[in-house]
Amino acid sequence: MSDSIILGIESSCDDTSAAIIKGNCILSNIAANQAVHKEYGGVVPELASRAHQQNIIPVVEKSITKANIQQNAISAIGFTRGPGLLGSLLVGTSFAKSLAMSLDVPLIEVNHLQAHILAHFIDDANPMPPKFPFLCLTVSGGHTMIVLVKDYFDMEIIGKTTDDAAGEAFDKIGKIFDLDYPAGPIIDKLAKEGNPDAFTFNKPKLENYDYSFSGIKTSVLYFIQKEVKKNPDFIKENLNDLCASVQKSIIEILMNKLEKAAKELDIKEVAIAGGVSANSALRQAMQDNHEKLGWNIYIPKFEYTTDNAAMIAMVAQLKFERGEFTDLRTTATAKYDL
User: What's the pLDDT score for residue 15?
Assistant: First the structure.
């Protein structure tokens, strides 16, 4: 790995983040969160892009200061081109272009989903990076997919959600329970005090390795409506058990397809990535399969699970070594395939 110093910029959704990487060692990884979306129960694109405009300069400055480098030491700038919210992406893309021009350094576009997967190659993400080929369950608020990773930039989606993403299901069910946004971490916390076998919900029956989460959301909604008619305090009285049961159902849906893929493709190298990979029950399920099925498991550090610029910088570093640069005509894109 080269000793080049790269600035990574991430602005795909509602977190503005900047990181500095040298080789595959992260020197700084700074993020500004946007609390403004809480009252709306979800990310409001217009508000997100405005907040990125306010946050991006202080976040980049702080990342450079924390890394203890001079601005002119930067060898290249990597940025998230997509997928994500177009307004948010435009802020990061425009800023990256302007800074690259002013510093006269190369510009490197990064696919946000690739970055979640390749975060595993940051030197402190895991004790050891995964060996190729490996399976990566990439699961977040906007995406749920099983990716067969044959090499750094040779990836194939072998299964994906046909409707909601798993993180989206957590948030929508959280709304039914009247929990704050984002609901995923709250459900995870409350589930620790509940009985995961208290209630059962419908699970989808899909062929191949694809997922569906709209059914469980509807199942929970109808169940709650029926129970609240009988007892208006049903949610409050059973909240921990409800959270534990919902979490168990979602994790089982995720793991069943991942286990099927690992078995049929005869792959023991299995990783998770994305915001939902911070979920304690999913991490425990991976650990169980390490013991039960002999998987070599790769679970990234918490700070590399959510949207962060360290993963963007990691991909930019790999592309820098290959001389894969982009020119100033590049544009942000809401959809960006692996």
Answer: 86
Cα distances (angstroms) measured from residue 191 to each of 15, 157, 313: 26, 31, 34
SS3 79: strand
The reply to whether 331 sits in an annotated binding site is no
87 annotated ligand binder: no
The residue with tokens 């959809």 is: 335
CA pair distance 163, 217, nearest whole angstrom: 11
Nearest of 251, 233, 131 to residue 188 by alpha carbon: 251
Do 238 and 193 contact (CB within 8 A), yes or no?
no
Q: Is 142 marked as a binding-site residue?
A: yes
- Parts of the chain with a pLDDT under 50: none
**Which of the four CATH numbers 3.40.50.720, 3.20.20.70, 3.30.450.50, 3.30.420.40 does domain 131-299 have?**
3.30.420.40
Tell me if 55 is assigned to a ligand binding site: no
Does 116 count as an annotated binding residue? yes
pTM for the whole thing? 0.95
Within 13 Å of residue 270, how many CA atoms lie on the same side as its CB? 29
184 has binding-site annotation: yes
Annotated binding residue 92: no
Give pLDDT, residue 38.
Answer: 67
Q: Where are the domains of the chain?
A: 5-119+305-322, 131-299
Domain 5-119+305-322 has CATH 3.20.20.210: no
CB 211 within 8 A of CB 159: yes
Listed residue (128, 135, 116) closest to 295, CA to CA = 135
Decide if 277 contacts 306 (C-beta within 8 A): no
Equal CATH topology for 5-119+305-322 and 131-299: yes
- 171 labeled part of a ligand binding site: yes
Phi/psi of residue 27, each to 5°?
Answer: -95, -25
DSSP 124: T
